[in-house]
Specification:
Number of domains: 1
Strand content: under 5%
Helix content: over 70%
Number of strands: 0
CATH class: Mainly Alpha
Order of helices and strands: HHHHHHHHHHHHHHHHH
Number of helices: 17
CATH topology: Growth Hormone, Chain: A
Largest sheet: none
Radius of gyration: 20 Å
CATH superfamily: MFS general substrate transporter like domains
């Protein structure tokens, strides 16, 4: 019972760190038009602040995975959260776009050690039968963080100045890191017997060998491939939805950030009904329905003549994304149990490298007025991806 209460408190503080991490990831989405105006660049050029975060976030997963397996996931999450507090403060003081992009990359490199290792920690602590429900609970925090980041980013641009948003994030990171550090100290004896016992000297040869072994596993190859495509199609387009709302419907940055809250509400709705929908549809059904809803949302965002339908599109895209993505997350926590930290962070690495590739491609289109056809093509790609994932999961479940 005491161990369960300890895990509950740890998960609660991890949820706060995950909330702030996701808020920091998405806070720049509604800022792009304002940043483009302030620094006298195009919206596509300003999107470098998003791509830099995503690239650094993805690449650094290759470091945090083995580090979490060796030093303890909680300890690494504390260090990453503290670094985020520092670099978020630097971001608030950035004097030009170049400094802003560099500081955002540093934030992404630090934030990379939070959500994936929280997922891996859940994989260590929670039986597989209860894991999707527990991950859905963590998703409440991450979705809420996404909603808060997108709304507050737009609000700060309109009312407070975009620098205030990063100052607030710095404070939240500091609080989350402090709470986790205090919690770890309170259970130091228990941690010494569990996570800390796994600590050992780092070996580059051993790390590369372990990575090769993971990448040679067919299940790992499949999960990493589909999550890369998902990141490009779904996350890559998400970053430009506020720009679509501003330039396509004439909304302010604050209003565009408010509309993006509907994306998060769709994710929260999924998290509430995750167990029921999983029992009704199965993992393969959730993946297929999720892809269909993402596609419907993207098509509404692309072709809707009025803002009301675009708002509905945001909601459907959010609901569908979390149906699809949480299914993949659950697969990621089980694809290599013997090296779960490394496996989950590889999953996150490919997700955000896919996102950065998607952001780069969409950035090329947004300055040319091609956002509508790009959203349409992404919708078609998501449907094909959902069908492929559903078929694999159906065969796997039948075989099991």
């Amino acid at each position: 019972m005491a161990a369960m209460q300890t895990n509950t408190r740890t998960l609660r503080f991890m949820a706060l760190a995950a909330f702030t991490s996701m808020a920091s990831m998405r806070v720049c989405d509604p800022m792009l038009p304002a940043l483009a105006q302030e620094f006298s660049v195009s919206t596509g050029d300003a999107s470098a602040v998003i791509a830099a975060f995503a690239v650094a976030y993805g690449v650094l997963q290759l470091v945090y995975g083995p580090l979490g397996d060796r030093l303890g996931k909680t300890r690494v999450v504390i260090g990453a959260t503290s670094a985020c507090a520092l670099f978020s403060a630097f971001t608030a003081l950035a004097p030009n776009l170049t400094a802003l992009v560099v500081s955002r990359a540093a934030m992404g490199a630090s934030a990379a050690g939070i959500i994936p290792l929280c997922m891996a920690w859940i994989g260590d602590q929670v039986p597989y039968e209860q894991r999707q429900e527990t991950l859905a609970g963590l998703m409440v925090a991450t979705v809420s963080g996404m909603m808060a980041g997108q709304w507050f980013g737009g609000f700060a641009v309109e009312a407070l100045g975009w620098r205030v948003a990063f100052a607030v994030l710095s404070l939240l990171f500091a609080v989350a890191g402090g709470l986790l550090w205090r919690q770890m100290r309170q259970v130091a004896a228990q941690a010494a017997g569990s996570e800390a016992a796994a600590a050992s000297a780092f070996s580059m040869r051993g790390y590369l060998a372990s990575t090769r072994q993971l990448l040679a596993m067919p299940r790992v190859q499949w999960v990493l491939t589909v999550v890369t495509i998902e990141g490009a199609l779904a996350f890559g387009t998400l970053a430009f939805v506020p720009s679509r709302m501003v330039e396509g419907f004439g909304l302010s940055a604050a209003a565009a950030g408010g509309v993006m809250v509907m994306y998060g509400i769709g994710g929260l709705l999924y998290s509430v009904f995750a167990r029921r929908w999983l029992a009704l549809l199965g993992e393969h059904g959730l993946a297929l329905l999720g892809a269909a809803l993402i596609a419907a949302g993207l098509l509404l965002l692309a072709w809707s003549p009025v803002v009301a339908w675009a708002v509905v599109g945001c909601f459907l895209a959010g609901l569908g994304f979390y149906m699809l993505h949480n299914t993949l997350q659950t697969q990621a926590t089980q694809m290599a149990p013997q090296a779960r930290g490394m496996a989950v962070t590889l999953f996150a690495c490919l997700l955000f490298l896919g996102q950065s590739g998607g952001v780069f491609l969409v950035a090329l289109s947004v300055d040319r007025g091609w956002l509508v056809p790009v959203f349409t093509a992404a919708a078609a790609g998501v449907v094909a991806l959902g069908v492929a994932i559903s078929r694999v999961l159906r065969r796997r479940n039948a075989a099991t």
